[in-house]
């Protein structure tokens, strides 16, 4: 595992202000758990309040629009997220790809906009069960990476990759530790080719998909795993901190 694992909670479309108590509890505990980098991505409506309540952990968003501003009803730009207190944005999550038809090129455009606005990016990739069964998992993920990642000088330092097999998200099922390690090594190769060995080697690759306190240590010990992107188990301080402690 990486020297300082990065554990990120994705609250998805969960949370009203009542949930800020969980963010506060996570933030208090983070003060003791300094060997782990902890962050939360609440819904847009809670970013500003979470930033104010939680002063130690990272706070980010779950999506942004690629444009700086304009006539895009219901959308939020990267600059707005930055202004609300976000430090990063999750992009290309499989739920965005499925629910909103996001393609790799959309993810890249959003990533470019996010980086220009001063945000870091967590770029999500992952295969479906059918693609894995067909032996195409690594090629699918490599294609997503090459199509979604932002390009340019110095950009790699702003990027984290999250490998999230679609069939493991919210299902309670996970790949074997060997399969996670094999995929993360394959992702590392693509990153080294894409950004060059020196920059590619520094990018953290998170595993996401049904990470829980009782399987976190095992999954986080797989080759090239630099942390975890956690959905359901990030919704209470108790279970999320169970994962942070396991890291
Ligand atoms: C996610 O959606 O990013 C995720 C990993 O969800 P879960 O942990 O609930 O599988």
TrEMBL record:
Chief location: cytoplasm
GO MF terms, alphabetically ordered: triose-phosphate isomerase activity
GO CC terms, sorted: cytosol
Record keywords, A-Z: Cytoplasm, Gluconeogenesis, Glycolysis, Isomerase
Active site per UniProt: 93, 164
CDD domains: TIM
EC number of the protein: 5.3.1.1
Entry annotated with the keyword Coiled coil: no
Database matches in PROSITE patterns: TIM_1 (PS00171), TIM_2 (PS51440)
Localisation per UniProt entry: Cytoplasm
Xref: InterPro entries: Aldolase_TIM (IPR013785), TIM_sf (IPR035990), TrioseP_Isoase_bac/euk (IPR022896), Triosephosphate_isomerase (IPR000652), Triosephosphate_isomerase_AS (IPR020861)
UniProt xrefs under Pfam families: TIM
Domain of life (superkingdom): Bacteria
Catalysed reactions, as listed in the record: D-glyceraldehyde 3-phosphate = dihydroxyacetone phosphate; L-erythrulose 1-phosphate = D-erythrulose 4-phosphate
Residues the record lists as binding substrate: 10-12, 170, 210, 231-232
PANTHER family documented for this protein: TRIOSEPHOSPHATE ISOMERASE
Similarity section: Belongs to the triosephosphate isomerase family.
Quaternary structure (record): Homodimer.
Function: Involved in the gluconeogenesis. Catalyzes stereospecifically the conversion of dihydroxyacetone phosphate (DHAP) to D-glyceraldehyde-3-phosphate (G3P).
Full protein name: Triosephosphate isomerase
Natural source organism: Alteraurantiacibacter aquimixticola
This protein's encoding gene: tpiA
């Amino acid at each position: 595992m990486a020297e300082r694992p990065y554990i990120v909670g994705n609250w998805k479309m969960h949370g009203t202000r009542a949930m800020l108590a969980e963010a506060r509890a996570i933030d208090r505990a983070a003060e003791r758990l300094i060997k782990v980098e902890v962050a939360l991505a609440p819904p847009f409506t809670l970013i500003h309040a979470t930033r104010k309540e939680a002063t130690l952990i990272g706070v980010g968003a779950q999506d942004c629009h690629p444009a700086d501003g304009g006539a895009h009803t219901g959308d939020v730009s990267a600059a707005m997220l930055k202004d609300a207190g976000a430090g990063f944005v999750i992009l290309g999550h499989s739920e965005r790809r499925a629910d909103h038809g996001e393609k790799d090129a959309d993810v890249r455009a959003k990533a470019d906009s996010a980086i220009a606005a001063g945000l870091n990016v967590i770029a999500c990739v992952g295969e479906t069960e059918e693609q894995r069964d067909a032996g195409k998992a690594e090629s699918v993920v490599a294609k997503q990476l090459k199509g979604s990642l932002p390009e340019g000088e110095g950009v790699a330092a702003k990027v984290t990759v999250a490998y999230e097999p679609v069939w493991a998200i919210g299902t309670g099922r996970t790949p074997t530790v060997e399969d996670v390690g094999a995929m993360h090594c394959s992702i590392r190769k693509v990153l080294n080719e894409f950004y060059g060995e020196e920059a590619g080697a520094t990018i953290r690759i998170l595993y996401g998909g049904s990470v829980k306190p009782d399987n976190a240590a095992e999954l986080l010990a797989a080759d090239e795993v630099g942390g975890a992107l956690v959905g359901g188990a990030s919704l209470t301080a108790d279970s999320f901190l169970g994962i942070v402690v396991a890291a």
